[in-house]
Amino acid sequence: MSEVNTGPSLGGWTRFVTARPRLSLLVALVITALAVFAGSGVADRMGSGGWADPDAESTYATQALEREFPASQPNLLLLVDSGSRSVDDPAVAAEAKRLTDRLAAERGISGVGSYWATGSAALRAEDGREALIAARIEGDEKTAAAALDRITPEFRGSHGPLEVSIGGPVAVQHEMQDIIQEDLLRAELIALPVTLVLLVMVFGSAVAALLPLGLGIVAILGTNAVLRGITELTDVSVFAQNLTTALGLGLAVDYALFIVRRFREELAEGAEVRDAVGITLRTAGRTVLFSALTVAVSLAAMMVFPQYFLRSFGYAGIAVVLLAAAAALILLPAALMLLGHRVNALDLRVLLRRRRKSGARDGSGAAGAPAEPGAGWGRTAALVMRRAPVFALATAAGLIVLGLPFLGATFGTADYRQLPASADSRVVQEEIRDGFPGSPSGSLEVFVEGAATPAEYSDYRSRIAALPGALGVDGPVTSGEHGYFTVRAEGEAVGQQAQQLVRDIRAEPAAFDTSVTGTAAVLVDSKDAIADRLPWAVAIIVVVTLLLVFLLTGSVLIPVQAVVLNALSLTAMFGAVVWVFQDGNLSGLLGFTATGDIETNLPVLMFCVAFGLSMDYGVFLLSRIKEEYDRGGDHEQAVTFGLRRTGGLITAAAVILAVVMVGIGTSRVTNTKMLGLGIALAVLMDAMVVRSLLVPAVMKLTGRATWWAPGPLRRFHDRFGLSEGESKPIAEGDAGDPARTGLRARDRDTAGV
Fold first, then answer.
1. Rounded to two decimals, what is the model's pTM?
2. CA distance 180 to 192
3. Mean local confidence (pLDDT), 29-45
């Protein structure tokens, strides 16, 4: 017989990994130690913004105003409380003026103004007991954060008859960043021990349970080092660290479960340790590599968006996926080589098995052979396929119903309400919102440039003031050929009225160049940027997924099924996001403030992450179905086999990943809470509903046509395709070498994973 091509050979890689396992682990330990050093302080170099399109009109106007008129864009607010006195009291006014002068003298502070200097009613509380000092901290987020840390101890607190609190956008962002770092540490302290306990329950062996945890730590530390390097080149969002922790642990667990289970199967069949590692890499190792590529592609799609918030998750996601896969394919085989049969050491299930045997002998347990491993999943698959139309329609309809609330989604932008109610900067912002007649940082600004006459300015101002939703227009404030108008909008700062007013102002003709900025303008531009790039991101994910799943299965229909069913698995997540976080249901239980909208970038991020994780589980299931179908050619038996062999594995992996995501979801920042809990729900729905019910039902309905492909594509797959097992004839020279055949012909059902 001639040798059949079975995809990229891992023979050389197997020999490399297994030749010097101690050296491999030592090198990995040294690299990990270097990563700890290289990644230290990465959070301090990250930003808490990144929601805006850097090429948008609003960004241009903001930068121009900061350059030409810094007082027009205050990002620092000092709330001055005069206690029982009036803010116009001479002693209060004198101390407030001293504070204003001190702030103006600080390095990096510009555009300082106050109620006592301007007499503006917008800077004085309606009860006359509080007033504001407004200023702008210059520079980017990191520079502004450093300046805020420097001046806060000098200005916050008591100053004679005054009590000063600090707020404004820069204070909100800085406090959000600090809280996220604290919450991430707490999430890790929760997730790591709980994950270890679950892994011990899944593996039985305490030794085996430590392996995926070690891989996860290596992936997380390595990704932090990568992100530290990226911060030298571009902005990175602090939110990306949450994804690093979640995916680092979650994917390491997924890959380790798959590889260690296969290794233990081979040992149970009597294979030598080196041969068992070789077979594992040629089978489960291939699937892990393939799965990592599918997840990385989904996360890489975020790189097409201009907002650095989304791009940051692409950086972190690609790094952590590839590092988790590399650890699983390099470090884990080396560790298995050294452990050998000791991978089953400290097996906590021994006591349980002894108790069961004792019960059977004394009559308290059922006599007879032990239940077939995975039999419950096999029975589930058989039941689903017997009633395939019912399960397919009922499951799909249920998922669609769960997603219906998303049709009422309203998209907004993050603000101080993301913070917990006790956060200092949120308290200040709420005082300003409730006690002052207007917010100095919540209006629209129209930056104008070019020579203009007073009559042209007056005409333009009158036309803007007459637009629907405009309460009034101040200005222009001019300097040379530059100037700006301030437009006060009706309703919420980022409400639909304010957004429409932005569009109306931009459509209004003028005798000079204009550009609009402000919170509502940034939101409009961000939504437009996402709408413009979203089709490209979806196209990348769909096309590459179709190609990769075709290479795995050789089928034309299965890749289409994978994309559609993955999309269905996300409906519950999106429906819950709107029902819970937008509409405020369960807000008291979960401890957040509903804002009536969803941050515009979050659904894109959640889609890319959840879709990638769904494909991760889909690849595990499809690889085993394909293996059995190639071996026996029985379609229904292959589906049953695949679910029986991976049902418990996928469920265990999903539960562990969900625990990690719920740990992230305990954050006090609403967006992080939504990200963690939403993806946890999507992962569980995918593993327990879509993979267990919908996939076998749909594959039963499509029957043997599931595996059809036209002749040219079949030949392409025969040459370049990838599968976990080999069912075609093997070269006679390889027949006796288990490290090259990669898969024994008989079914190897073994207990546990």
1. 0.84
2. 18
3. 82
